[in-house]
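During the second half of the funding period, the structural biology subgroup turned its attention to how the target accommodates small molecules. The most pressing case was 4'-deoxy-4'-aminopyridoxal-5'-phosphate, which had performed well in the primary screen but for which no bound structure existed. We therefore specified the complex as follows and requested a full 3D prediction, including the ligand pose.
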Amino acid sequence: MSTKKHNFYAGPAILPQVVLDQAAEAIREFSGMGLSLLEISHRSKQFEAVISEAESLILELMGLSSDYSVLFLSGGASSQFFMIPMNFLNEGETACYVNSGVWASKAIKEAKLFGNVQVLASSESDHFTYIPKGFEIPKDANYLHITSNNTIYGTQYHEWPESPIPLFCDMSSDIFSRRLNFKSFELIYAGAQKNLGPAGVTLVVIKKSLLDRGKRKLPAMLDYKTHASNGSMYNTPPVFPIYVTLLTLRWIQQLGLEHIEKRNQLKATTLYREIDRNSCFSGPVDLKDRSWMNVVFTAKQADWDPVFLEMCKQAGCVGLAGHRSVGGFRASLYNALELSSVEALVEVMQSFEKKHA
Ligand code: PMP
């Protein structure tokens, strides 16, 4: 077998090795059934046990009780960009958004199809290098939508807006990366393919009291009520991604969110310290808004980019090219990435400096 690489991809992304091993085993045979997990009915008691344990673990990790529904949906986080306003923004009503990056902009664009959208603050004119703060939130809007971690730009909320209206959050790229007061959100969603599992399932955690607020007649599949009242089994759910998510949740539970948070903070600090010290690189993001999950940095000379990426590749560090819309470099340090991978990257940065500074 080839040696495992240091995986800095932004998503789909690194998963814990134990999760990959257990998932591979379940593909061969699941739960002593004489069948692969890929071959069984989603209505089997074995899969019902999977989805029910995954739901309970999510509520437990978030410290939430049964006044929230946990849904496993398809269509990616991008489908939540329209499902949210479709369900909770009726014509003539207003929803508030903060524009902190491309994903937030896409959510805003979709919401405008359904009702009035008030963008309370935006960092677009500064290339999304900071998290907008200090804005007023109108009390009569339906909800406020934010993006906790901006995967492309490497910014992250470290303090939260005090919202007098329901707070909705896209946590696709930092879910379960740190402890949070999850109770302050009424709706949380995340595509699984960064900190939770493989692509193909999207987690939605929604306060049950919200479910009756929508007035629009909707196709069943696009109505949160359908999925909440059928335990995510109205149609065939993405069985394999949900199982891998369960394995990852067990791994998170075993380590504990506090430990994961400390580990993530240490990884991020290690890399930012090198970016700030190294004479060949710099970081564009406001210091207080730096993301612990996606560390964005640039070389001081543009023609160094391919040279540095090649050196990374030689050292087994992959997935470091910045998003195609911003360039430079991005190191994604999701939960499953070990500190030793960050140290390997820091070593490459130091060798680069010795050759080029
Ligand atoms: N929100 C954020 C913060 C993301 O990082 C992404 C994907 N990278 C999305 C939404 C879109 O997710 P999906 O591809 O699952 O639709």
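Two results from this model are relevant to the next phase. DSSP finds nine helices and 14 strands in the chain. The first helix runs from residue 17 to 28.
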